[in-house]
Design goal:
Organism: Mesobacillus boroniphilus JCM 21738
Strand order of the largest sheet: 3-2-1-4-5
Low-confidence stretches: none
Number of domains: 2
Distance between the termini: 73 Å
CATH class of the largest domain: Mainly Beta
Largest sheet: 5 strands, antiparallel
Pfam families: DUF2500 (PF10694)
CATH architecture of the largest domain: Beta Barrel
Number of helices: 2
Strand content: 35-45%
Radius of gyration: 20 Å
Oligomer: single chain
CATH topology of the largest domain: OB fold (Dihydrolipoamide Acetyltransferase, E2P)
Protein name: DUF2500 domain-containing protein
Shape: elongated
Keywords: Membrane, Transmembrane, Transmembrane helix
């Protein structure tokens, strides 16, 4: 019993450190891929909006905002946007989407 507990605690520690390192490497990879992608402008329509809430309970809750855009070709792309952009975009808006990889850069509405 006395040899099992230190081994178990060591395994949990290694697992937690491994998850943290994996998350950091994955984030750096996404950031690098976005930086290597060209900046694109394309006509698109706002199709849907959604939020994801993280935390709560004993910690502060945090909302993450997503908007799905549909291009003239019918392809769709969901991008993470900040709260202000989320509030200003309305489903059905049509305009020019500016993005780089999976990074949202802006949306300019076209008048109907």
């Amino acid at each position: 019993m006395f040899t099992f507990v230190p081994i178990f605690m060591g395994a949990i520690f290694i697992l937690v450190i491994g998850i943290i390192i994996f998350t950091i490497i994955k984030s750096i990879g996404t950031w690098s891929n976005n930086n290597q992608s060209p900046r694109l402008n394309a006509n698109a329509k706002v199709v849907t909006k959604r939020t994801s809430v993280r935390g709560g309970g004993e910690t502060n809750a945090r909302s993450i905002y997503y908007v799905t855009f549909e291009f003239d070709s019918g392809d769709r792309l969901e991008l993470h946007v900040n709260g202000q952009e989320y509030g200003q975009l309305v489903e059905g808006d049509y305009g020019e989407l500016n993005f780089q990889g999976t990074r949202y850069l802006g949306f300019t509405r076209h008048p109907l």
